[in-house]
Amino acid sequence: MKNLLIGTKDKVDGFANKVTHNGLTYGLFGYGWSFSFTVDLKAGETYTVSVPVFNPSETDTSQARIVRGQELGNYLELVQPRKATTITNTFTPTQDEEGATIRFLVNGSQYPALGWYYPMLQKGNIDTGWTPALEDVQTEIDSAKETASTAKTTADGKNTVIYSASQPSTAGRKVNDVWFDTNDGYKMYRFDGSKWVAAQFGENAIVAHSITANHIKSLLGLNVNDQFIVDANGNVKFAGNLEGASYIRTSFR
Fold first, then answer.
1. What is the pLDDT at residue 164?
2. Nearest CA to 110 among 60, 75, 74?
3. Could you tell me the domains of the chain?
């Protein structure tokens, strides 16, 4: 329960079930459930409460119930099958009621569930139609500003990816710009704010079994913990014993 501000509408949030009709998404619930707001009512003041509703039933009529504080009690209105309408009721309290509860519900278990949109309470006897609440407008403005700020930060902070056979200039670079050295097997470098530094993948960044013999084009320069080395000429040096291998002699000079 929260305050329904006079002269504005208020949002209905937190419904587990919803139904959409003609572009509007309604909170859906049946008998035994309700939602409510509190408001201060003044004696002699005329108020108009309105709420859009939708009956999703294909065959059964439903009945909406609005409880207008302790003094004025119930207002009932039938809603036909597959009908979307706005229930409007004007009332004038004869006594002040601070924190009066305005409650919306389906009036009995014999009626199907209704979809409820945003209720609105206005002073006067004319429903001027649904308009955004001032606090919701401000929230949307603040949200738009935050989104714009985030977008600007993202745009300002976009990084550049460079493909080049030689080291790019560091002038005008941003931290985390990336350079792929096309003259060195697309080796990757990252700009750290002052210089290009190698950004090599660790073994945890490589999916197991994703590299097979078909992917290995050369063993030149291979060094496995200084125990198995292939030099630039293709010569192999290894430590330890060679076991389980056969030696085939081809020629000697």
1. 86
2. 60
3. 2-136 (2.60.120.260), 161-238 (no CATH)
